[in-house]
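The protein record passed on below.

***
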Amino acid sequence: MCRRAFDGPGADGAATAPTRQRGVALPAGSLLHRERELDELARALDEAGAGRPAVVLIQGPRGIGKTALLRAALGRTPGNAVVLRARCHDNERDFPYGVVRQLFDPFMNGPGRPNRSDRSQQSEFPAESPGGYLAQALPGVEPISSGAEAGNGRHHVLNNLFHAARSLTTSTPVVMAIDDLHLADDASRQWFSYLARRLDGLPVALLATTADEAADPLTADLGALGHTRTITPGPLCDSCVTERVSSTFGAPVDPDLASVCHDLSRGNPLVLQELTDRLLAARTSPGAPDLDAVLRIGAATLADTTLSWLRRSHPRAMELLTSLAVLGPGADLATAALLAGQGDLLADEAREALRRTDLIDPGPPETFRHELVRTAVLARTDPGVLVTLHERAAALLVRLGAPAGRVAEHLMSSGTTGLDWALPVLRTAAREAAADGRPDDAACYLQRALAEATDPALIQSLTVQLGTVELHRDPAACARYAAGLATAADPVERAGLLVPFAHPVLALTAAGAAVPFAEAAGALAATEDPAGELLLPLAAQAVLAGQRTAVRRAVASLRAAEDEAAVSGFLGALAVMAAAGGRSPRRAVRLAARCVSGASPAEAGIGVLGAAMAFAWSGRLDEAAAWAGRVVRSAQRLNHPGELALALLARSDIAYRQGHLDTALSDADRAAHLAAQIHADELVRAATALRIRVLLRRGQVPDESRLTHAALPADTHPLIRAVVLEARGLVAAARGDHKEALRLFLECGHQLAVRGIANPACVPWRTHAAQAYQTLGEFAAARTITADPLPGADTRPRPAPDRGPVIGTRDAGPVRLTPSERRVTELVLQGLSNLEVAERLCLSKRTVDTHLGRIYRKLAIKGRSELGAAVKAL
């Protein structure tokens, strides 16, 4: 059966005049009655009225309704009883007999006290007045009898006070009620104990609220008396809390709200009353509450009630609690005591005070009952104190051998730099955080480590570590770090610094960052014996960005390379390049098969993703889907959002080609979400384009504003740009704007041709353009564009036979330039010299000269001056 507790935060001011209790009416709804405890108190009062001694101690921690229970008990006293009230306070402990003076104040001289000449008042009290005894016992009281002699000595004072109390019981029972007896001055506590042992035959009931036995030795001393009753009100149960909160709101409350209120208050009526009042003032809906707002209000309530009392009454306990809050989850009070500088004795006293507040779980280990308690403690602590405690906590945990992550958290909150032991801790914590899939934490630790470091070599090493972490949270930042490290003069050193940054995510999201990798690969390939584990990743990064720097030298180093991940990544890049070119699908499949031959059957690294796309663009969709799925699982296990987004994009495209539209749409949505997390806008656009393709196949016309709200960066990878252009063109065609659709499809083809992507399986822009031509009535153009699968072909109708042969031929068909020749031609027409063209394309000047010689021969021209006119005539 549930035992209900009283509510109410505390007692009213102590009464200063004797009052006859005649069934005092309590406000409706103000109390939840404890019938058992009240019955116990009533029996004690009845025994006192019958002349039997009665001492009742209502003990327990503050706020559990002790004062309210005492007040309700006084409402049940007999009508002829005299009730004397007193309330103790910690600030009055230095005033001897302060509590006694409160109790007997009506019988001491001064304004507002009973007039002894008043017959009605005199008839109310016995002829033997307590005033004389009080005058002898307490200094400053005017004697009633001139013959009275002032008593000397503590015992004489106690004896006079006893006789003063006994003089009141001649014709009526007496009830003395004292709030917070454990806060009384020592003289009053001694008198209370003295009186409690001499109640035999007196109709006197002593009622007192006090702390428990551990906090107040007097409680244990009096509890040993045969006529003492001890009552310990417990906290409110969950049903009582629900009833109380419902009563406050005047409506049924949501179960979650009631549960939060119970967890925060721990059944303490004081805290619960304050919490419900604040929730009511904040207009919280009882039926549909905002639990986050409730928790914030609860934290403030704890800070203003329990914590304020603890700081005032038990400062050492508050220091211990603050140290525990600073140490954070996983800490215990023993470590907190070390941080607070408390010895075992002080720590035990503080721990006992905390146990009585019910703020911590007794454990072991002792922890906060609710995280909001920790939040409230930290919120009420001075920021300067917190900074100092965090610095001390970091140093303490290092000495205790705590995990690097815990120490790093305190270093991040401290304000001191230049600590010798901080750098290794921060680096270790960063590695652990990165391994656990927490790149944000790892980046914060490394940034703090960079602030601590002064040695140039160490700064360089930290930058590499930070850049690899940024790869999984912000590719743009990773590209900036890579560019900053690409200035090393030694080719081997530069390659070693850039290899950790070589990743397909960086190649696709920051194509401009490929230049440092291509230059580093070229410089390394020019050395006598380049290491394959360095050359292969750099060459693969260049290939993925559309540059073939050092490819031949990298191929030659494949056999000697021992790094399987580097070999797999390079083979995957070659396979996807061969498949995109469309000239040798068999070679692309062979390279892809060689790439995946050493991969685990359960999972695969990111390098295998190139092989999966090569399979897809070569028509082997089932194999492509299987390997893409393995890359997805691997990225999920490693918790690398960038890799996972890229793998999901590939799997979505493959599923779209297979006709699995639900899978394609789901993967595209997940990829967009992950790409947004790492601020990879290019991948977000690609995922949106894939999603639009699926919706269009389902017959829906989606909104393309997400693709056009901002222009793609100039260095966006051409494959991503082409996918976006294709989706925009499909939307324009679905809306009937076929001219705009045709323009977008032709632009898509141009972007692909620039990088030599001629395989129609990559992006079928020719098919879309042919459909647009047919819709516009240009059937000859539609036939022409579908008949020319090679890159760089004319997207307009070819000249009629009667217009004569094309420049550079007499009886042959139109001139065709290779993708490389078209790139060289475009840069030459921009006015760049052969050397500048070579630097832009990461080629040698001799290679550019060779390309131009072929171009001049094909076009039957003699030099640069004729190149522009010849190209326009194509």
